[in-house]
Amino acid sequence: MDFNAQEHATKIIDFIRDYYQKNNLGGVVLGISGGKDSGVVAGLFAKAIGPENVIGVTLPCHSKSQDATDAVLVAEKFGFKLINLDLTSVYDQFEEEAKKIDDFVVSEDSEINLKPRLRMSSVYYLAQMYTKKTGKVYLVAGTGNKCEIYVGYFTKGGDGVSDINVLGDLTVEEVIKVGEVIGVPEQVLYKAPSDGLSGKTDEDRLGFTYADVAKVINGEPVDENVKAVIERKHAANQHKFNIPIYKK
Amino acid sequence: MDFNAQEHATKIIDFIRDYYQKNNLGGVVLGISGGKDSGVVAGLFAKAIGPENVIGVTLPCHSKSQDATDAVLVAEKFGFKLINLDLTSVYDQFEEEAKKIDDFVVSEDSEINLKPRLRMSSVYYLAQMYTKKTGKVYLVAGTGNKCEIYVGYFTKGGDGVSDINVLGDLTVEEVIKVGEVIGVPEQVLYKAPSDGLSGKTDEDRLGFTYADVAKVINGEPVDENVKAVIERKHAANQHKFNIPIYKK
Q: DSSP label at A194?
């Protein structure tokens, strides 16, 4: 693989710094899941705009405590402030109201996707709160990488919403290499990717690996059946990027 | 204005019906605010896919009761089911958790934008719930019109998120004309546009009228100062459509 991680880490840091200077921005808020993507993004922003302008947020929602421990590792490594907004009671209150609807049925899809939407709502709430508090504009950083985006593995209106994205053109393998260069804690960087919601790893849920997705993206040889599954997923999720709009 | 409302109403209904048939879809969920945009969209969907496949939702969140009354008018007119999911306690629970953050400050922007984000989360939750219940896919219908979109007057990650939009290419005046053709109740159709959140009308908040926005869009004569304000708003909100992404 022809990918110079050191060079790209430097370029991403410059990209962030330039954008912040050009637009006179203040800081960034991002959810820290304890996984590698948010760890790498947080590290890059801390190096670009200074850790004092980075606010990491843990947003537990009936979550495993291990995720919070790993978030602390990342925050300590890069020296930014980590705050906590517990969404468990908010989620429970929502479900209580939803159950009052006479048509109510339990839907696993509804429940799984509600969490990233509440998290998105939270990081934007906090970005505007820190903007008010400091008088400088805070953005929300996205953490989606190229493989996830290719197969549409994100929640529309959830983790799919952000103000700036620095991993969107990097495969999972490239994200890890950038993470190694900037020193993301190993325990976080080499964790199996998981949404932290369904109790399964992403690759279990998807039925293929991100390495295979990278091969499809790069036009490298990959098992034809696996390729077909990935391309079907890609096509099926195009509605997350482009919606039908009636034109006069 | 060269706009044949009868013709476009028919074409929009065909557009919706074709999309549902082609993709084997079941129904639609949309928030009914009591304003004209959601009233017109609900009426068009009821005519296109049958009122039995339309679920309207009122999503009060510290809201005026008049909005709910007007929502009932729309549902009765077009014969679709109206359900209610009260977000007031969810919103309050969120604020209670946010106040536990040591940096907490009250931010009006945070509060105003939290509501449409909770509403978006709710309609998607319900769309997936009705999909589970009926075994047919329910979409979320957007209600943004061309004037609002032009000046970016929507909440990113809130009412800006949907699966299909039929008003996106229609000015406010054109939306009203389509509403007249399909029989949206007058009390709803001629109400001053308001987000129902800030207690002000949209035009008060924006400092210009949607009629002026339509003139700018259509290249018609408009006061130069007003035009400058509208174009500034348009430019300032481009970040809601295109975010910066680092490219290798």
A: B
pLDDT of residue A197: 64
- Sequence-distant (6+) residues with CB within 8 A of B21 are none
The C-alpha atoms of residue A117 and residue A122 are separated, in whole angstroms, by 9
Distance from C-alpha of A101 to C-alpha of A104, rounded to nearest angstrom: 5
- For A74-99, what is the mean pLDDT? 98
Q: Which residues pair with A58 in a beta bridge?
A: A84
Q: Measure CB to CB from residue B121 to each of A117, A128, A165 and give the nearest one.
A: A117
Q: Are B184 and B39 in contact (CB under 8 A)?
A: yes
Best of A125, A132, A174 to disrupt the B interface by mutation (most B CBs within 10 Å)?
Answer: A125
Q: Which of B233, B227, B225, B151 is nearest to B193 (CA)?
A: B151
Asked if residue B197 lies in contact with residue B112, where contact means CB atoms within 8 angstroms, the answer is: yes
CA distance B240 to B246: 17
pTM, two decimals, is 0.95
**Tokens 């637009």 belong to residue:** A23
Structure confidence at residue B196 (pLDDT): 67
- Share the mean pLDDT of chain A: 94
DSSP state of B201: B
Q: pLDDT-derived band of residue B197, with 50, 70 and 90 as boundaries?
A: low
CA angle, residues A142, B202, B142, in degrees to nearest 5: 50
DSSP B198: S
Dihedral pair phi/psi, residue B228, rounded to 5°: -65, -40
CB contact under 8 A, A248 and B169: yes
Domains detected in chain A: 5-191 (3.40.50.620)
Question: CA B162 from chain center: how many Å?
Answer: 9
- The single-letter code of the amino acid at A110 is S
ipTM: 0.95
Give the minimum alpha-carbon distance from A163 to chain B in angstroms, rounded to a whole number. Answer: 6
Show the beta-strand stretches assigned E in B62-212: 81-84, 138-142, 164-165
What are A138's two structure tokens?
A: 């805070």
